[in-house]
What we know:
- By secondary structure, the protein is mostly beta strands.
- Helices cover 7% and strands 30% of the residues.
- It is built from three helices and 23 strands.
- The chain has helices at 4-16, 34-38, 56-61; strands at 42-45, 63-67, 70-71, 96-99, 129-135, 140-152, 156-157, 160-161, 165-177, 180-188, 191-196, 210-213, 220-221, 225-228, 234-235, 243-246, 250-252, 258-264, 272-275, 305-306, 309-310, 339-340, 346-347.
- The chain has an eight-stranded mixed beta sheet, with no helix packed on it. Strands 13-12-1-17 form a four-stranded mixed beta sheet, with no helix packed on it.
- A hairpin with a 2-residue loop joins strand 20 and strand 21 (309-310).
Amino acid sequence: MAPLSSYFVVAFLVVQAQCLPKSGNERRQISIPSFVNKYAPIVYLHSTENYFPSDIGAQVTNTRPENNYEVISGAPNPLTLDNLDSLNAIGGTNVYLTSIDDTTSDPQPAWLKGVIPDSTGKTDGAISCAIIVCDYGNGTVDAYYMYFYAYNWGGKVAGLNFDDHVGDWEHTMTRFTNGVPQTIWYSQHADGEAFEYSAVEKYNGGVRPIVYSANGSHANYATSGTHDHTIPGYDLPVGVILIDYTDVTYMWDPTLSAYYASVSFPSGTTPVFAAYDDTTPINWLNFVGRWGDEQYQSSYLGQYDVFGQYRYSTGPTGPEDKDLHRGDGTCPSGVTCNIRTSLWQGEKT
Length: 349
């Protein structure tokens, strides 16, 4: 039988492997670590972007919860960020926040277009980002910068539009050790790339990393230019079929209009979110449904598919589903990637 002290060591290590709150009895954390904003990304939006960062609460106001194309009975009315998570008990992952307006009308509803950042980089009047902090308690802190857009334009292939959908959550994650940034994850469609912090470009020669948001799809890249992602696991600088475009046009500082929260996992798998103040809505982060319409049926005017790829697809899941507890890794679970040391485009893994 091992010495009693060995069990204490094992127990300690298990605790250190979890994102834990400073006190299990505290819902509200005391203050956000200063380095989370000091090293927060600056995002550049493309020159031809039509769908800008959007107010998270407005998405709830302009939608209604549906399941199998039918309005869910018994849902709160009005639906707000404070009660959004109550839908989990009604429909769980089968809830779709479905647009009240016709999203395919010409012109489209104004709320889908979002807000163009002003000269300071602020999306004035729209809280368009959620910054979520996971503190492991051993000097390791993961900061998730969640970027929200009311609509995703998927782009064209052979003159046809694909993968347009209501709602779009993208994110980057920066891992810190004792307040010093180490690595950064850039989400890209169902994939992404990870880099050493030292490798990526910095805004105005300072310390804030630059994120380039692709036109329409809002996939996040570490470089400006052409990004072909036709071949899984590759980011190529020459366009072939599935192409994202990034450039330096609209500067967006997500920290200027953001909700801040911490996340912990005291039970191991279920996230527990906490606000940093008494006014920030927090319950919406628990919502497990979709932040947009269910994929339109084949009979819907304008809907088509080519080899299973649809013009109008299903809206995304929210921050709760972005693997907020990555343990020893920078990349989400299920994604094979290496931490890249240069910005050379090519194989991501």
